[in-house]
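Q: Hi! Curious about what Probable membrane transporter protein looks like structurally. Here's the sequence.
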Amino acid sequence: MSETIFLLALAIAAAAALYSSVGHGGASGYIALMALAGLGPEEVRPAALVLNIVVAGLGAYRYLRAGRFDWNVFWPFAVTAIPAAFLAGRIDVPEAVYRPLLAAALAAAALRYLLWPQIDAIKPSAAPSKFIALPAGIALGGLAGLTGIGGGVYLSPLLVFAGWSDPQRATGIAACFIVVNSVAGLAGRASSMALLPTYLPWLVLAACIGAVIGTTWSLKGLDKTGVLRVLGVVLGLAAAALAT
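A: Let's find out. The predicted structure is below.
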């Protein structure tokens, strides 16, 4: 393993630990790291989805076992997100379009983490409105397919802010949502599997280690405010680099 790949694996392990601690797969972080490492969009999108599936899958398993899930909140978003992610995953996005699109997605995620890191005080009060959940699922699924970002970074604050879930269950709902979105997006780009970097297994191993650490932190009641602000700074820097 070269020094560059080793450093990238370490960075992905750290990102996986931070993201999984809040129920996210971490695709926005992996994409930022791989893009800054010089990987092209044809490698970044499928690789990010694979890492997303691994990290969010592990998180979903652990959060489901801990009772952090609500099917009635999950399905209205997932039912439209899955086909949207699959169809969007089949679209070949030119790099001239992909870079600003990705920069905008990362910037939005950065603002979420920087400006609204603490959501624990908000309590659930209602079931999700289908008039919001169904189109939101389409939008987040499409974003997952186009960019490789699973959408959990946007879904979890929406669930809590709208009063549809408490922060604990939102972590499990977001993790499951990321898994189905990422699987659908990757299925839409099945041909891109041949373009995955040969050293991806090392990145997957690093992501698994990070996910175990992050989910353990979360289940032990880690204060996530500082973690989210760190993620916001990292994503903001990546968005600025991609936009230039």
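A: A fun detail: The chain has one domain: 3-200+223-243.
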